[in-house]
Amino acid sequence: MSDKKVKKHTKWDGLEGGSVSNQDYAPSYVKKNTRYSPKRKIRSFRDLEVYQKTMENALVVTGEVVPILVKDKFPMTENMTNCALNIPLLLAQAHGQRFADFDRAVATLESAMQSCNKMVVYLEEAQGLSHNADDGLLDDLMQGYIQVRGKMLRLERSWIKFRK
After folding, report:
1. Rounded to whole angstroms, how far apart are CA atoms 49 and 62?
2. Distance, CA of 44 to CA of 98 (rounded, Å)
3. Which CATH number fits domain 45-163: 3.30.450.20, 3.30.1300.10, 1.20.1440.60, 2.130.10.10?
4. Maximum CA extent, the chain
5. Mean pLDDT over each residue of the chain, to the nearest integer
6. What is d(CA 67, CA 23) in angstroms, rounded to the nearest whole number?
7. Residues 40, 48: contact at Cβ < 8 Å?
8. Contacts of 85 (CB under 8 A, 6+ apart)
9. Distance between CA 110 and CA 152 in Å, rounded?
10. How many CB atoms lie within 10 A of CB 102?
11. What DSSP state is assigned to residue 37?
12. Angle 74-75-79 (CA atoms, 0-180°, nearest 5)?
């Protein structure tokens, strides 16, 4: 004999408090917009996603990519390191300046976007000139900087919209 009990299903199954829970049930209004997720409040520049991503990329560049490029005698390692470490700094400055001097804050944010473009160029050059660098890692970093640059542009637009 089987120790499993056969449970009789009722019309109330799947509803809250019903006898059998159905995990797949969701109201139709929830299913329409699956990409929505509430954003956390921004209390400091450290809460900005663009800051977190550029800091993460900077640590990967300086910790993993630059040592390989130094061994390969890549001529732009110092410039690449300075650029990677400068982007989070520019974001912090822009976030701090936006209430005191809005125009300067926007200019600083645009400098951070330009630095993202520079990093993509440095990484492409490293990919072409270095024989020991991991092409997959460099591609991921380039894609990350391109995506972060787009998010910075949207951040700038939201600052301008918020100011009006």
Report:
1. 20
2. 12
3. 1.20.1440.60
4. 79
5. 84
6. 49
7. no
8. 58, 62
9. 8
10. 13
11. -
12. 110
Specify the amino acid at residue 157. Answer: R
What DSSP letter does each residue of 48-115 carry, written as one string? Answer: -HHHHHHHHHHHHIIIIIHHHHHHTT-TTHHHHHHHHHHHHHHHHHHHHHTTT-HHHHHHHHHHHHHH
8 Å CB contact between 54 and 85: no
pLDDT of 89 above 80: yes
Give backbone dihedrals phi and psi of 8, rounded to 5 degrees, phi first: -80, 130
| Residue tagged 């109330």 (tokens) | 12
Query: Of the candidates 127, 84, 90, 123, which has an alpha carbon nearest to the alpha carbon of residue 107?
Result: 90
pLDDT tens, position by position, 17-71:
544 444 555 555 555 555 666 666 766 778 788 999 999 999 999 999 999 999 9
Distance CA 8, CA 119 (A): 63
